[in-house]
Amino acid sequence: MVDRMDLENNATLLDIACGDGKTATFLAKTMGICVSGIDVGEGMIEAAIRRSKKMRVEDRTDFRVALASKIPYGPNSFNAIISECALCTFVDKDSALVEITKVLKHNGIVGLNDVTVENHDNLDDELRGLLGRVACVADALSSTGYIGLFSTYGFKPISSSVHSDLLYDMARKAKTRARFFRDVGEDQETNSRMDDAIRIIDMIEKQIESGNIGYEMFIFQAK
Question: Domains in the chain and their CATH numbers?
Fold first, then answer.
């Protein structure tokens, strides 16, 4: 995704929902660019800071605990913004887009990897509720929905590509882990939770196979 964003060596980039900083520190190390990251998890940000020191890129990284709806940087701070499998979880996506528009420079680039749901009416009931939110599908948009959202805030789509096979692989690996923890679990509560996880993943796999749930990469440019 970042290769397609065609960033210059002196670019500044924001990673929204950066987690423990794997992507951010990798980009700072390999591309030599300045990368900032925000995440709601304090523990994740602490891990990201530790990772940046271990990789010796603390001079080119900055990590802060923050919401995407309240990005703690000033206007026109970044040449580029990326978000990996995060926007789909935001209930209020418009607030995030307002902030993205604010901190991105003129003609800035946004790279988005995210879950897509083409028709929510075709989801199982549980996937439209709390469990679906945990599984990143209940609040996901369709492919055209993401394009429409960004277009509303003045972005033009540069490219998009479907990578649903990656999502299917992730689901299968998650189910394998859930089965393992269920099989070695020593209490009924753990086993019950793993059974629920396996059941939900089975639903998601069927939705991926039908084409209703997918995984897509988008590149947008601010007008």
Answer: 2-120+135-164+213-222 (3.40.50.150)
